[in-house]
Amino acid sequence: MKILLTGAAGFLGSHLVAKLLAEGHEVIGIDDLSTGTLENLKFASKSKAFEFVRHDVREPYRAKVDAILNFACPASPKSYQLDPVRTIETNFLGIINLLHLAKETGAIVLQASTSEVYGDPTISPQPESYWGNVNPIGIRSCYDEGKRAAETLCFDYKRQFGVDTRVVRIFNTYGPNMSVGDGRVVSNFIVQALQGRPITIYGDGSQTRSFCFVSDLIDGIYKMLTSAKSIESPINLGNPNEFSMLQLAERVIRLNHSTSELVFKPLPQDDPQQRKPDIGLAKKILEWGPKVDLEEGIKLTSAYFRQELGI
Ligand code: NAD
Ligand code: UDP
Description:
Elements: E1 2-6, H1 11-22, E2 26-31, E3 50-54, E4 67-70, H2 77-80, H3 84-105, E5 108-114, H4 141-161, E6 165-170, E7 173-174, H5 185-195, E8 199-202, E9 208-210, E10 212-213, H6 214-226, E11 235-237, E12 242-244, H7 245-255, E13 262-265, H8 280-286, H9 294-309
Parallel strand pairs: 1-2, 1-4, 2-3, 4-5, 5-6, 6-11, 7-10, 8-13
Antiparallel strand pairs: 9-12
Helix pairs in contact: 1-6, 3-4, 5-7, 5-9
């Protein structure tokens, strides 16, 4: 296939470029380099099957492609809250522009949605049928509501224009190619542990997340892209093993033989208390499940950050 991938220079985008090239596809990677970096794409720069275009998805882009993967959007709360209007524009205008292109060209659209569509969930684990508990006017809303509107557009373009849209709801994923200053919890804790700096726990650290290693997620996304079945629901992709932030910190410190201590900082507004995917649909429809456990993933990610930090 000829594939247009937005957000190609980011954490997940760069892993997807590697996977798509390895599977023999041609890739046009577009990115405005706002949180991503060309360093992440160095490995692909000599490939004849890869082209990089610096472009902001808020503006239309035209190309004749078979599939469009929309991953352009800052994903770390620290980044998406820096310029919230830009974040919601990226989500809303970005997907409209891409769906319009798909309607004209017949391309499949795969949208990177998020567990954030469930907000601060009142049930656990979260199945795709749960409508969520989202604050529409809080500091996370630019991201949450932007992603929810993008899902709406995907399903409206499917119903109204017959576009083949596929939506994956990604739960906290981590691994190599995250930037040192990304701000998300796994990268923060590992970088702090490696530098012997205090580990910053927001709130009392009892809030939970379920962490998925990047190679597992990329396998799930690829299965979603290439599935011959018609998929009528968004699909959760994540690792259902749930940990509190205190448990995560303990593992990061132990596995890196770190001397870092814990410091407690205020819990940001609307920070979800719990998050755990129900991956029954992914198992049934895609025959997919995660393989890498948290300890193995922390080791692999720590090795990457050690190299990045020259430690
Ligand atoms: P990231 O910040 O590393 O990557 C996002 C990429 O999008 C960056 O390269 C950035 O430069 C680019 N970008 C941002 N705004 C853009 C714009 N207007 N035009 C063009 N490019 C733009 O984050 P990530 O973790 O790789 O996330 C990628 C996608 O996956 C995002 O859509 C995110 O919402 C989604 N997602 C990620 C996770 C996760 O745990 N990593 C969870 C849920 C959803
Ligand atoms: N968090 C933390 N310390 C940090 C960064 C994050 O305790 O240095 C917490 C944050 O408050 C949240 C969880 O870790 O409860 C996950 O945060 P992240 O920003 O990685 O992603 P989120 O799932 O909140 O979008």
